[in-house]
Amino acid sequence: DIFYNNSFKNGMLLIKVSPEDLEKLFDDAERGANATLTIDLEKQEINGPDGGTIHFDIDPHLKHCLLNGLDDIGLTEQKRDKVASYEARVALERPWL
Asked: Measured between alpha carbons, how far is 8 from 66 in angstroms, rounded to an integer?
């Protein structure tokens, strides 16, 4: 899904939950000012005001990117040495490129 993937690329966490868990989240939200929810990305949990926990799944790669503040450019920069090595090798092997 384009929206889902683009949201992660913009640093937004989208969480898919079951209809039952969604209903629980709505019930918690109706508490108004006392409706504090905490999202723990590392543990993949949503913690409600009553101490209840909802677990969620997330792709490990997307989780890594969000936890480390990485976008596509940041991921590429992590491999800067490998990219430079590849470019140098290609320049030697295929100088016409």
From this structure: 8
Q: Give residue for tokens 């999202």.
A: 39
Structure tokens at 65: 């990117």
Gap between the Cα atoms of 97 and 92, Å rounded: 10
How do residues 83-95 score in pLDDT, each as one tens digit? Answer: 999 999 999 999 9
- Can you tell me the distance from the alpha carbon of 23 to that of 74, in angstroms, rounded to the nearest whole number? 37
11 token code pair: 């640093």
**CA of residue 8 relative to chain centroid, distance:** 5
Q: With contact defined as beta carbons under 8 Å apart, do 46 and 25 qualify? A: yes
- Per-residue 3-state assignment (H helix, E strand, C coil) for 62-83: HHHHHHHCCCHHHHHHHCHHHH
Specify the pTM: 0.74
